[in-house]
Amino acid sequence: MKPLREAQGEVIAGIHRMGTERIGIEEALGRVLAESAVSSEPIPPFPNSAMDGFAVRASDVASTPVVLPINEDVPAGTVPSMTVEPGTATRIMTGAPMPDGADSVVPVEDTESGTSDSVTIVTGVSQGSHVRPAGGDIATGDVVVEAGIRLSARDLGSLASIGVSPVVHLQPVVALMSTGDEVVEYTTENLGPGTIRDTNRAVLRGVLDDLRIPYVDLGIVSDNVDELREAYLHAADVGDAIISTGGVSMGDFDFVKQILRESGSVDFWKVAMQPGKPFAFGNVDGVPLFGLPGNPVSTFVSFEQFVRPALLAMMGATKLFRPQIQGVMGEDVTTSDQKDVFVRVMLAPDSDGSFVAVKAGGQGSNVLSALANADAFAVVPVGVGSLSAGDPVKLEMFTWNENRGLDE
Ligand code: AMP
Ligand code: MG
Questions:
Q1: Of ligand 1's atoms, which has the minimum distance to the CA of residue 178?
Q2: Relative to the alpha carbon of 249, which ligand is closest?
Q3: What does the pLDDT average to over 171-198?
């Protein structure tokens, strides 16, 4: 069996990065930045008030109360025309540029309105109070978002603040198919004898949608040499990556290998992980092919461990793997000590706030309901084999965004 980490390394080494394009910020959510976004100006661009109040010289309000004449009003979006001379003030709104001469803002709460052209300052301020300096958020030349980041809504705000249209990697188009004579469309109302509804394509389309990766759904392909060959060749034609499920167990696989001999190469792996030991990886006409095991939980785990990181790498991302955090096992578990085992667990906080993990249901690789109920994988590594209630455990948070590179 191939160690999981080694297998993941081979997959990442075996794919290529997509090209790049410049797009609008409105299209950029979830895309991976290809060129670091650098600010060509300071943000904020000018010193401005953090409060509604009065721009003053701090030395003028050192002893209070003090009455200051108001030279003008400066709402946000306008520019001061007057200098704050000693012993005067400008009425200023949040976000408005600071007038020359003033070094501080007295919030309106610390004043009493006198006449319309004077103000009584009740509480003084120290120099620089409530002033947002130019460049206080971002300095000229700062890298605002680094290349390799998959853009979040917050990153879009940072890009917008510096007026940069991002250069991002293209998204791979995934060609997707399920295989198996027993598999029928999930819209089937009355299942015929020996048939099951296709759950894998429902899950895979969902995870691709989550990644905002486009796909071509090639449907269900039967276990027939000619149909399979045609489907894989068509997939290579329309996709930048191919995902198929089913047909990767030992016997079946030789069949696929034969089919693809002329147009590509694909290897059958036995990975030291559970679920998801059988996995096929290769290419059809140069397009990477990920052959996932048919059992629905195995499909998901293999997608998480191999395909998601590989697609992220194709998209140019530097972070490929989900966060792993420390938790506590809430019950005894016994697993194979020959494999990295991904136990599907539900999490609940204990009295000190640690995550306590209990099995989310049956651990068979066909038990999709337990996976659907799960919050995380409790990872029981090769060589461990069993954990007792109260033992520390590594939790892989498959609902959180990736934060690890290959060697982390
Ligand atoms: P296979 O990898 O083709 O040997 O399939 C392993 C198990 O997964 C079998 O019990 C299949 O019936 C089941 N299976 C295969 N494909 C799917 C699918 N698309 N949806 C649900 N179950 C499937
Ligand atoms: Mg099958």
A1: 19
A2: 1
A3: 97
Fold of 324-396: Beta-clip (2.40.340)
Q: What is the pTM of this model?
A: 0.93
Amino acid in position 67: V
Q: Where do the structural domains in the chain lie, given as residue ranges? A: 4-18+171-314, 20-43+136-169, 48-132, 324-396
- Nearest-CA residue for ligand 1 atom 5 is 294
* Ligand 2 centre distance from Cα of residue 294 (Å): 6
| pLDDT score at 261 | 85
Ligand 1: list residues with CB < 6 Å.
178, 180, 182-183, 196, 198-200, 245-249, 293-296
Q: What is 48-132's CATH number, 2.170.190.11, 3.40.640.10, 1.10.1060.10, 3.10.20.310?
A: 2.170.190.11
Which-ligand-closest: CA of 196? 1
Distance 105 CA to ligand 2 centre (A): 72
Closest CA to 110 of 190, 187, 171, 53: 53
- Report the separation in Å between the CA atom of 264 and the middle of ligand 1, taken as the mean of its atom positions: 24
Please give all residues whose CB falls under 5 A of ion ligand 2, grouped by chain where several chains appear.
Answer: 180, 246-247, 294
CA 294 to ligand 1 centroid distance, Å? 4
DSSP 215-284: EEEEEEE-S-HHHHHHHHHHHHHH-SEEEEES--SHHHHHHHHHHTTTTEEEEEEEBSEES--EEEEEEE
Q: By alpha-carbon position, which residue is closest to atom 23 of ligand 1? A: 294
The band of 359, judged by pLDDT with boundaries at 50, 70 and 90, is very high
Residue of 196, 220, 277 with the most ligand 1 atoms within 8 Å of its CB, for mutation: 196
CATH of 20-43+136-169, one of 3.30.70.560, 1.10.8.60, 3.90.105.10, 3.40.50.2300: 3.90.105.10
pLDDT, tens digit, for every residue of 237-270? 999 999 999 998 877 777 888 888 889 999 999 9
How far, in Å, CA of 95 to CA of 75, rounded? 8
CATH of span 4-18+171-314: 3.40.980.10
Q: Would you tell me the crossing angle of helices 250-259 and 225-238 to the nearest 10 degrees? A: 60
Question: Do residues 255 and 242 make contact, with C-beta atoms less than 8 angstroms apart?
Answer: no
